[in-house]
Structures are given as C-alpha cells and as structure tokens.
Amino acid sequence: MDRRPPETPALAELLTGSCYCLATRRASRRLVRLYDAALADHDLTISQLATLAWIRHLRHPTVQRIADLMEMDQSALSRGLMPLERAGLVSSAPDEKDKRKRVLRLTEEGDQRLIAASADWQKAQDEVARQQADIGADVTRLMAGINRLAANDG
Amino acid sequence: MDRRPPETPALAELLTGSCYCLATRRASRRLVRLYDAALADHDLTISQLATLAWIRHLRHPTVQRIADLMEMDQSALSRGLMPLERAGLVSSAPDEKDKRKRVLRLTEEGDQRLIAASADWQKAQDEVARQQADIGADVTRLMAGINRLAANDG
DNA sequence: CGTGGATATATGCATATGCAGCTAATTCCA
DNA sequence: TGGAATTAGCTGCATATGCATATATCCACG
Q1: Which of A36, A24, A100 is nearest to B71 (CA)?
Q2: Which residues contact B137 (CB under 8 A, 6 or more apart)?
Q3: B38 in helix, strand or coil?
Q4: Hey, are the CB atoms on A145 and B134 less than 8 Å from each other?
Q5: Which of B14, B17, B135 sits opposite A121 (nearest CB)?
Q6: Is strand C within 7 Å of residue A48 (CB)?
Q7: Protein-proximal nucleotides of chain C (any atom < 7 Å from a CB)
C-alpha cells in the first residue's frame, strides 16, 4: 500500500519546479558553482570578484553604497569584506567628511588579483554563452521582470 | 582629478549587470526575500517548505535522495534538516534494509504546517505572476538553458 | 568469507545572506 | 542651538551552501 498522503495542487506545483523562487535559486546555485570553480585558482569567489570590481570602479566606495548597488543587505557586505581585508586585498579608512562612513580602497595586490581573476571570469562567462547562446536574452528578460517586481515594493 | 583606474572590458561587463551568475543570484535573492516574507507567519523559509514538501511527496525519503532532487549538496541538506527536526516537524529513523540511510518522515505538526504554509506560498507565487505575467516563461527559458549547461558537466 | 571500492551521513571550515538591535555621527527642524 | 529623526556600520543570531574529509555500511569480486 502507498502510505503517501494525497497531493494538494499547491504542493504539486511547488514540486514540479514551477516555483519561481526555487527555480531561480537553483539556477543561481549552479552558476555560482561554475563561476566559483573558474575563479578558484585566484582564491576568489564570484561575489568577492564583484565586490572588488565595485570598489575599483567607484570614486568614493563605501559599505552602504556598494551594498545598494549589489542589492544586498549592508551587514552581509560588511561581513563579506572581512576575508578581503584579512587577505590584504582591500583596505579602508574613515571618511574625512562623514566619520560614519568607511571608505574602501583596493590595495596593489587587490588590484592585481582582480585584473588577473577577471580574465578567468570572462572565460567562464564566454563558456556559458557558448554552450547556451540564448542565456543572455533569458537572463535579461528575467531581470527585467524581477526589476518590475521591485518597482512595486515601496 | 579622477583617481579611478581605467576600466577593462571584462570589468565593465561584469559591473553592468551582464554577468549571468551575478544577475541570476540577484534575482534569486529578491525572490527569496519575497517568499520568505510571505512564509514568515509560519516560521518557515521557502527552502524549508520545499524540503518538507519533498519529504511528504516521496515514498522513501532519504537525505541524499532529496538533496539530489533539490540539486544541492547532501551536507547542506543534512544541516537544513536540523532546525526542522529540532522544531519537531520532521523525524527520522535508520533504514531497516540499509542502515547507512536515514528515512525521513513528517510529524503530524510538520504535515499541518506544510499544508498551512503552502497556501501562503501560493499567494506569493500568484502575486509574482500577477505583477509580472511573463515571469513563468522567463524562468522556464532560463532553466532550460541552465539545464543544457548541466548536461555538459559530466 | 574477506577486503577493497562505492555509497550515505555527518562534521569542520568558510563564505553568503538577512533581520533585529546597538552605537556613533549627521541632518533637520522648531 | 538642542533634541528628534535619519543614516552608516557593526555584531549577535540563524539559515543556506559547498568542499573536503571522516565514519559506518554495503556490495561485489576473488
């Protein structure tokens, strides 16, 4: 006899992979594994690479500013910076004009590691595009939809 | 004067949001926040809801089997089960035939919480679909592409 | 009937994330 | 100008994840 309880419509839908949240997270996990592996030689994760890139890009990079740009909680970024500072890739100093803020800066090594790793990031990116040429359009469409959701937030 | 170093093509691409990995992860973070908030009243995360749903669905749910289905590392699921067992929503017993395996089971309360929470999951899912009707197609396309990537793995 | 290889779990270690709450600094306004 | 409201950042707490590794089983083969 089958001891499994009867399915409900909602549970059935959730399990068939049609939950937007679960499906997207799954895709995210796969890609992160792929990109992280591509960057492993540089001892950087894709998240850390992005953080370094933002610090290099901005005129006046602070924790909150980067967190906003990466659309993540400031506390998460704050913690994410720790291994980078520990590794000597990022340094920081309080802002002269606003002592609450912490102004970030890439060290010489941080800059070099970022540049070197970005070449392997490009390889991973190209490889994904090569294997699945439409993915760019797919991701673009998904982000457009997601952005519309966010717009309704406040 | 502008102290920012010159951009490289790769870094420029990475920062403009065209990194498949970062874009997907960002979308994932947003959706997780949204669904987790929708489930907060039930003290469940979207991840925990999925885990409970799989346990309820399978004839013979074990850690590895569910990890495979959710496409995540077995150790991650193993840890994810802890709060569920601690909360009394899931119980387990060693498999009679194969003592290495741990057979999972929903408790009465686990079953009730799952059913109750799935109604709110449906609300979140419907709300997302309502605000962005195309998202289903977007996610489907993305997953199809991602699945093609995975096929090239082994 | 061993024993080596494969399988199922768990743990140590590290990053990734978010929320709540705390402190310091700044800003705004009466 | 002085206190309220806001802003930046941090820390405590909890889950989410993956990799490497240790342990217990199981299984197939000699």
Answers
A1: A24
A2: none
A3: helix
A4: yes
A5: B14
A6: yes
A7: 7-12, 14-21, 24-27
Q: Which of A133, A34, A28 is nearest to B145 (CA)?
A: A133
Q: Measuring from the CA of residue A82 to each C1' atom, give the nucleotide at the shortest distance.
A: C15
Residue written as token pair 């195309």: B134
Strand C close residues, chain B 96-125, CB < 7 angstroms: 98, 100-102
Q: Which fold has domain A43-129?
A: Arc Repressor Mutant, subunit A (1.10.10)
Q: Specify the residue for token string 């950087």.
A: A44
Residue type, B21: C
User: Which residues in chain A are contacts of B32 at CB distance < 8 A?
Assistant: 21, 25
- Between the two ends of chain B, the Cα-to-Cα distance in Å is 51
Three-class DSSP category at B58: coil
Q: Which nucleotide is nearest to A47 (CA to C1')?
A: C16
- Comparing alpha-carbon positions, the chain B residue that sits nearest to A121 is B10
Encode pLDDT of A98-143 as tens digits.
999 999 999 999 999 999 999 999 999 999 988 877 788 888 888 8
Range of weakest confidence among A1-5, A139-143, B30-34, B66-70: A1-5
pLDDT value at position A154? Answer: 38
Q: Compute the distance between CA of residue A113 and CA of residue A109 in angstroms, rounded to an integer.
A: 6
CA distance A14 to B50: 7
What class, spelled out in words, does domain B46-126 have in CATH?
mainly alpha
Residue A119 in contact with partner chain B when CB distance is under 8 A: yes
Q: Point out the residue nearest to D20 (C-alpha to C1').
A: B75
Residues B105 and B128: their CA atoms lie apart, in Å, by 31
| Count of other CB atoms within 10 angstroms of residue A75 | 10
Strand partners, A90: A106
